[in-house]
Specification:
Length: 269
């Protein structure tokens, strides 16, 4: 554009041109982010399928290559179907699956509880993260309640579909959850479904994310009553002191005064 035309351009026209250029940059950035988001979702899905295939393979592994967790020295042998996966990443503690859903993932554990918020099974950066349990939980001897955390991804990955349990009709079709540890298989039945939040440390409230082992039957029953009162509907399923529980926890994006969506199940076999 010639200098004469630039001089002749009014301030309003200059402003419109600047806005158009800015919008073009924003559009290009948004398109790039969307493409990256799609790539990450596709990559995560493909990686999950590959891990599932590896899980089912019977691969001979030298047991001397295994790392033994201090609290698991007397644990039984690792199940054959998880030996190959464990050999790839010794942070693996089990596998979670809900039939007829996309939830079919390995479950990890790290002393750094934030690590698997942004890393996949192969320890590559991935904003989808990986399902993981709290650092204080034990799979052998097993904690009373194992809490599995996962992102609520809009793509549906990880725990992106867990919120469907808010609808009782969805629960009726997905009552059971399969959760295997490295050492034993397990089937769980959903008991409670509720919304909660992360409370201040000194705030007096039932903090489900701190319930791993109850020190007494009275404390256990108190926790059960708290969750029953919070539950969105009555499943008719109850638990007694000594039962093994599984808690699935994710963020809630739908309710203004809630930060977490939680599904609690009892082991039935």
């Amino acid at each position: 554009m010639s200098k004469k035309k630039q001089k002749a351009m009014s301030p309003a026209e200059k402003g419109r041109r600047a806005v158009m250029i800015l919008m073009a940059f924003i559009a290009a950035g948004s398109l790039g982010y969307f493409a990256y988001y799609c790539y990450q979702a596709s990559h995560t899905e493909q990686a999950s399928h590959q891990l599932a295939e590896l899980k089912d393979k019977d691969i001979a592994v030298n047991p001397e290559r295994f790392f033994t967790r201090p609290e698991e020295e007397a644990a039984p042998d690792i199940l054959d179907e998880y030996k190959a996966l464990y050999n790839k990443n010794k942070s693996l503690i089990g596998w979670l699956k809900i039939d007829d859903t996309n939830i079919d993932y390995p479950v990890m554990q790290s002393k750094n509880e934030e690590y698997y918020l942004e890393h996949d099974f192969d320890q590559n950066y991935d904003k989808n993260g990986t399902l993981f349990i709290s650092a204080d939980a034990k799979i052998w001897p097993r904690s009373q309640n194992i809490i599995v955390f996962g992102h609520n991804m809009k793509s549906g990955k990880m725990f992106g579909s867990l919120g469907k349990y808010k609808d009782q009709s969805y629960y009726e079709k997905h009552k059971q959850i399969k959760f295997d540890t490295l050492y034993e298989k397990g089937t769980y039945e959903v008991m409670y479904v509720f919304l909660s939040k992360v409370y201040d440390e000194d705030e007096i409230a039932f903090k489900y994310y701190q319930f791993i082992d109850a020190i007494s039957e009275e404390e256990f029953n108190s926790h059960m009553e708290d969750m029953k009162n919070m539950s969105l509907y009555d499943t008719g399923v109850t638990a007694a002191f000594g039962d093994q529980l599984l808690t699935l926890s994710t963020c809630d994006h739908d309710t203004a005064d809630a930060e977490r969506f939680v599904v609690v199940a009892k082991r039935i076999q």
